[in-house]
Specification:
Mean pLDDT: 82
Radius of gyration: 24 Å
Largest sheet: 2 strands, parallel
Order of helices and strands: HEHHEHHHHHHHHHHHHEEHHHHHH
Strand order of the largest sheet: 1-2
Number of helices: 21
Low-confidence stretches: 211-217
């Protein structure tokens, strides 16, 4: 019997295999280098993130040297290149040197996993903050500003605390290297969040890729038997979406370099723009439509999108209960915003309303129209959409649509139990079953986030914001959006997303940066990491207090 000839893999399959192999090769190289005597997964995580900052700094320095003058307001190239190279080299040497003495633990508890997530995010913030200080973007004494800027970069939040960053022609007065670092940092933050979706969030049960569909949606599931395969597929889709948006911006008339920078922050739902007035600077309907597509796609579940494309099954979107609600919220909110603002359903006004709705529900934060131009009811609706956010297993922030569906299902069951106390009923979303453990974790996540709102708003209010600005900015920062609602008087002095964070003092900027990090990592992970730090202290205090009470004379000499 003649054997069948071997079938050559298509270009798409070869590319996917290459991405998967790269992910596995990096993982193998890490374990080969980190083989020291000190066993600490937490230290390895932080040091790996710091070491990874060096090639990013080098790429941004090269961009600044070659094309920085064409995107920076100053028109100069190379101003940021040397500081970025020096800072990146110093960070890499220090991180790799320390990493050689560490190794990963064989068994990692859930508590260590969540703490490693927090430490990794803080290490990334530290690296980006050093870049801001090294290039002179932030004054050396303004550490709080550097922290807030770095947090906005890593978490994909469209907010900045540099009041003097507005230059002529509407451009931000930043060097080409820093503009690239802000855009690339937000894109890499989205890529890192994909890794978190696969490796970390399943332990929380509130948005990760559980193999059994335990996140209440069958679209948010693993795509391969191994997590490395799932990450490779999702990262490949993420990169393809970025390229598609960049091509769309270029065809819409945006300069090529600006197309690349804006595509990075659109696909990652970061929202950072090289112009102070965001995308309304281009005054182009075509650019806005491309942004609407890119932002809406950023809020869609990546596994759902991958399976629909891979199997050539567009109807998979329609079968997704969560996707139908996501689209319904966008359509109904667009109609409401257009109706409440002016009652005009002309094409331009509908486009502006749709842009604002998609921008906030995807937590991107781009602006085509200042939020203060919308009516009070429209602004309130936009704030609600900020809280909801995108779909599960997407790069968008917010509470997520699936959690909203879960809470609605839970409330409905409790109301039925009030009428029928002996009712035994499982929670369902579509064809997925929600376990009681998952439900309790989702409720706990919501309560922890709610407990942060009032204290954070008080701090921001005492730091320089009014009541409306403080409350809405807390919600915006927790959802990783950036722009917040304002009174008209405040908005006259603010430009785009710059006004709110620039209006507060150092304590307010640190608070805002922490809110961005907590919103991106999840409140549960932050609380667990805080307990790791606080528990030994409280345990030592209580243990010492018990000894003094048990042996009162032992402490007296």
């Amino acid at each position: 019997m003649t054997p069948r000839p071997a079938r050559r893999a298509s270009g798409r399959k070869r590319l996917r295999r290459l991405v998967v192999r790269v992910v596995r090769a990096v993982d193998g190289a890490l374990h080969a280098w980190a083989c020291g005597p000190y066993e600490s997964t937490l230290a390895v995580t932080a040091l790996v993130v710091l070491a990874a900052a060096s090639p990013v700094f080098a790429a941004c320095a090269l961009f600044d040297w070659l094309a920085g003058g064409r995107v920076a307001a100053s028109g100069e190239s190379g101003a940021d290149a040397v500081p970025l190279l020096v800072a990146g080299t110093a960070i890499a040497l220090l991180a790799l040197g320390l990493l050689r003495f560490c190794r990963c633990e064989r068994r990692i508890t859930e508590r260590q996993t969540l703490t490693a997530l927090v430490l990794g995010a803080l290490a990334a913030v530290a690296a980006v903050a050093i870049a801001h200080l090294a290039t002179g973007t932030v004054e050396p004494a303004a550490l709080a500003t550097a922290f807030a800027e770095a947090a906005a970069t890593i978490t994909g939040t469209n907010s900045t605390a540099i009041p003097e960053a507005i230059a002529g022609d509407g451009k931000l007065d930043l060097g080409g290297g820093m503009l690239a670092l802000r855009a690339v940092g937000q894109w890499l933050g989205g890529a890192a969040f994909i890794v978190v979706l696969v490796r970390v969030l399943p332990h929380l049960g509130v948005g990760g890729l559980d193999a059994d569909g335990g996140v209440a949606t069958r679209s948010a599931r693993r795509l391969a038997a191994r997590s490395a395969g799932t990450m490779g597929r999702l990262l490949l889709l993420y990169g393809a979406l970025t390229v598609l948006v960049a091509v769309g911006y270029a065809l819409a008339g945006m300069p090529v370099l600006q197309s690349g920078l804006h595509a990075l922050t659109t696909a990652s739902t970061g929202g950072f723009s090289s112009y102070a007035d965001s995308l309304r600077h281009f005054d182009s309907a075509a650019v806005e439509w491309v942004a609407i597509f890119g932002m809406a796609a950023g809020g869609v579940s990546l596994p759902l999108m991958f399976l629909a494309i891979r199997r050539r099954d567009p109807a998979r979107f329609i079968r997704s209960y969560e996707f139908r609600l996501y689209v319904t919220l966008i359509v109904l909110s667009t109609v409401a915003v257009a109706l409440w603002t002016s009652g005009d359903f002309g094409s331009e006004h509908v486009r502006k309303s749709l842009f604002a709705v998609v921008s906030v529900i995807s937590t991107t934060g781009f602006e085509a129209t200042p939020f203060v131009a919308f009516s009070t009811g429209s602004q309130a609706l936009l704030m609600v959409l900020m809280l909801v956010g995108g779909m599960s297993a997407s790069v968008a922030g917010g509470f997520k649509v699936v959690r909203l569906l879960t809470l609605v299902s839970y409330i409905g069951r409790e109301l039925r139990r009030a009428v029928h106390p002996t009712l035994a009923e499982r929670l369902h979303i579509g064809r997925s079953t929600i376990t009681e453990t998952t439900m309790s974790r989702i409720v706990g996540e919501l309560l922890l986030a709610a407990l942060l709102v009032i204290p954070a708003a008080i701090v921001l209010g005492a730091s320089g914001l009014g009541v409306v600005e403080a409350l809405t900015y807390v919600v915006s920062a927790l959802s990783n959006v950036g722009p917040a609602m304002s009174h008209a008087e405040f908005a006259m002095d603010a430009v785009g997303s710059i006004g709110h964070l620039a209006a507060v003092d150092a304590l307010g900027r640190v608070t805002a940066g922490l809110l961005m990090l907590v919103g991106r990592m999840s409140v549960t992970a932050a609380a667990v990491a805080l307990s790791v730090v606080v528990y030994p202290i409280t345990s030592a205090v209580r243990h010492g207090h018990w000894r003094r009470r048990r042996h009162p004379g032992a402490a007296v000499r």
